[in-house]
Design a protein that fits this description.
Layout lengths: L11 H7 L10 H9 L4 E4 L6 H11 L3 E5 L3 H13 L4 E4 L5 H12 L5 E4 L1 H4 L2 H8 L3 E6 L22 H4 L5 E5 L4 H10 L6 E4 L7 E2 L2 E3 L3 H10 L5 E5 L3 H13 L4 E4 L5 H12 L4 E5 L12 E6 L6 H8 L9 E7 L1 H13 L4 H18 L5 H7 L13 H4 L4 E3 L1 H13 L6 H8 L5 H5 L16 H14 L2 E3 L6 E3 L1 H8 L6 E3 H10 L5
Parallel strand pairs: 1-6, 1-7, 2-4, 2-5, 3-4, 5-6, 8-14, 9-14, 10-12, 10-13, 11-12, 13-14
Antiparallel strand pairs: 15-18, 16-17
Helix pairs in contact: 2-3, 14-15, 15-21, 18-19, 19-21, 21-23
The structure holds adenosine-5'-diphosphate (ADP) and zinc ion.
Adenosine-5'-diphosphate binds next to helix 3.
């Protein structure tokens, strides 16, 4: 058989070998492929580098018709198309940066049914001309790559993605597969709702990346800390994330003065400057990319050996994505998060000031608190990070900073138990402030209205300051015993972790520096 449907009739495993040269599926690929082959809508959650592309490329080839792939970034599309063409797959990309003759060539091939897989940006896909042309074709599968872009809660929201909810009207009966490396349960629910596929099969891989060495340290003399982290990776590629454009410029200049091949990257660069910086990064030469979060999606250099955060990310999801750019080749890679109380208060302040709707602010706030909690983890940091995504690791990772150098702690079992039972008895609906108020017996209207002043936990923690309790809350979040971020920003117990503590089966060590530091910074408010 020739033409677009030449693989129809072959099994996916055959095509995996023949076209892609892989002897076997990896992880969830086989399950994802078979769901889509059966015509079902699917959501695939897999960390970066996990092999998401195969999940839609195989059904695109094996089902009759052309595969349609929605992708948010031109660079990303062009890379995928080039890789597929090398394998003999006729792939093409439709986006705003095409030359007009290229565009008409693709149109002709589309009309002739010659294209196997078409990558398209969401706005282009839903433009009347393209939609008209595509809806006349047989479509094998619609893949929505980087599907978290559809979620306003996500850290890479793309308003254009919202319009994808209309896909089933334009392409009735065509199975859809959404893919993302964002593991956060809330974003996942949002994707399913926004794509109108509530009954989709959800396949979620482990987000553990054992080759990433996770470490965090309080900020001291920042530049010295950065340089000493970079020193282990001379002649290699590293990324240093900063919180502002101006800071990337300053840090890059200062690194260059010290002889490092540093390059700033942020959204304020001209397209030419951006392209030059990306080109240098991709070329494989040694480089220290000093960047804002604008440097992100589609960055596909496999041998990044270190990712350093000079400023704390706004959520565990963003943090995970950013450190995930290290070690895509699977070799050990360092990460270092530098954090300070000032960062945290500044981030909280800006959130409070932000014009976002309250519901959105609550979610952003709970993510920020989870991020802060991560910095204060006393036990395995890798485990604490995965717990943010609802993933339980049975054993500590053994190689994060806390696994290697245990931190000074005190016995906080009693305090943890008090807090957990206060949350349980108040119905797992209230935020930290309210629960702490109950523990400290602080009279308030909501406490009285809900009868919380009659509970056995009322006032049992009044010997301790509010800031002490805040420290305990954050640490229990870090430990995975508490989750924040239900619809109302309330605290909930994570049963698996919380129950043994409540039953007295497990002791809780808390980080000394966390409750102390917190106490001193809040002295005025006692
Ligand atoms: P993601 O999109 O999840 O970041 P990719 O689809 O780019 O990941 O795949 C990551 C890498 O894994 C690629 O280099 C790809 O060639 C390789 N890969 C994917 N599937 C397999 C497989 N079944 N066997 C071997 N290598 C694979
Ligand atoms: Zn660890």
């Amino acid at each position: 058989k020739a033409g677009r449907d030449r693989f129809v009739g072959l099994t996916p495993i055959d095509v995996l070998g023949r076209v892609f040269g892989f002897p076997a599926f990896r992880g969830l690929q086989e399950r994802a492929v078979s769901r889509v082959m059966a015509g079902e809508d699917t959501l695939v959650l897999m960390p970066t580098g996990g092999g998401k592309s195969i999940c839609y490329q195989l059904p695109a080839l094996c089902r009759p018709g052309m595969g349609l792939v929605v992708s948010p970034l031109i660079a990303l599309m062009d890379d995928q198309v080039a890789a597929l063409r090398q394998l003999g797959v006729n792939a093409a990309a439709l986006h705003s940066e095409l030359e007009s003759d290229e565009s008409s060539r693709i149109r002709a091939e589309l009309a002739a049914g010659l294209i196997d897989i078409l990558y398209v940006s969401p706005e282009r896909l839903l433009s009347p001309g393209t939609l008209g042309r595509l809806s006349r074709l047989q479509i094998s599968v619609i893949a929505i790559d980087e599907a978290h872009c559809i979620s306003a809660w996500g850290h890479e929201f793309r308003p254009e993605y919202r319009a994808l909810e209309t896909l089933p009207q334009h392409f009735p009966g065509v199975p859809r597969i959404a893919l993302t490396a964002t593991a956060d349960p809330r974003t996942r629910d949002d994707i399913l709702a926004a794509l109108a596929m509530p009954h989709a099969v959800v396949l979620s891989a482990s987000f553990h990346r054992p080759n990433l060495i996770i470490a965090a340290r309080p900020k001291g003399s920042e530049m010295k800390q950065v340089v000493s982290a970079l020193e282990r990776h001379q002649g290699e590629a590293s990324i240093v994330y900063c919180g502002s454009r101006a800071r990337t410029e300053r840090v890059a200049a200062s690194l260059r003065e010290k002889g490092w091949p540093a390059c700033a990257f942020h959204a304020g660069l001209s397209p030419i400057e951006k392209r030059a910086a990306l080109h240098r990064f991709r070329s494989g030469e040694p480089i220290v990319m000093v960047a804002t979060i604008a440097f992100g999606m589609g960055i596909d250099r496999p041998d990044v050996r270190a990712v350093i955060h000079l400023d704390m990310p706004s959520s565990p999801e963003a943090y995970y994505q950013q450190i995930g750019r290290a070690g895509r080749d699977g070799l050990p890679s360092d990460t270092l998060l530098l954090y300070g109380g000032e960062d945290m208060t500044r981030a909280r302040y800006w959130l409070d000031q932000s014009a976002a709707p309250d519901s959105e602010k609550r979610v952003m706030r709970s993510r920020l608190e989870a991020m802060i909690a991560l910095t204060e983890a006393t036990s395995c940091r890798t485990r604490a990070l995965l717990a943010c995504f609802g993933e339980t690791m049975n054993e500590p990772c053994g190689h994060c900073d806390n696994c290697r150098n245990p931190v000074p702690t005190f016995d906080g079992t009693e305090a943890a138990r008090m807090l957990l039972s206060a949350i349980y008895r108040t119905g797992q609906r209230f935020g930290a402030l309210h629960v702490i108020g109950v523990l400290r017996g602080k009279v308030s209207e909501p406490a009285t209205r809900n009868g919380h002043d009659r509970l056995s936990v009322w006032g049992i923690g009044k010997d301790r300051s509010e800031s002490f309790w805040r420290g305990v809350v954050r640490q229990l979040i870090a430990r995975g015993a508490l989750m924040m971020g239900n619809e109302h920003g309330g605290l909930m117990l994570n049963e698996d972790v919380a129950r043994p503590i409540l039953r007295g089966e497990e002791d809780v060590r808390l980080r000394e520096d966390a409750v102390q530091a917190d106490a001193s910074s809040n002295r005025g408010s006692r």
